[in-house]
25435_t:CDS:1 (Racocetra persica), 234 residues
Amino acid sequence: MKKTNPNRNNNFSGSLKALENCKDLEYLCIGYQPNIKGGLEYLPAEKLTYFGCDGTEFKEIPELKAKHKEVAEKEKLIEELSKKIKESAKKLEKAKESEEDKTQKIARLESQIQILTKNKEKLATEIAKEKTDHQQTKPNHQSQLKDLTTILFPSNSCNSFANFAFADLKKQASQIIQENQEAQVKISELESQISNLNQQLYSIQQQTAISQGENLKTAMEKETNSNRLANENY
């Protein structure tokens, strides 16, 4: 089972322990089912990306939602980077076919692709690490808050854990979102640089074509003059 969403008008009861063996669970919504209580530590979170829990005792742990949303945003960013890498690779192949002697321009495009690839691999590594950490975390209310505080505030000692509140976690989540936005700005800058490189390649092609046309015209004029002089001498 990958998805469960009990109707709001239903009246379910029991514990989340009943979902203990649903290892492929990705979407869970138990909103407004107040009779579902306890068993959060048994909930399989390996693939879980959404946990709707409004109107239940589990609503007091919104950091779960923030964590899943963060992973989803990074996965989306990876998909976008993959598309940009493929587009840049296609442009590179086209440049190699039409501009074999423009090695310097090609090298710059290859460098841009390497930068995009490194960014993609870095994000993929972060997601893999976060998923591993999440699997190892016992998701009960207190222990999960403590683990998340340790992840978001690694320099803080365990002795001051009681001084943290959900507002601190919300502030840290906002900082992570800002960092993602800055990463998107950098991606836009890279796209702009690639566009400029393409324009420069096009300009070089135009200049080369003009130069070749002028040389051909000059050669034809010389040949015409030579033929005319030969006819006159004859």
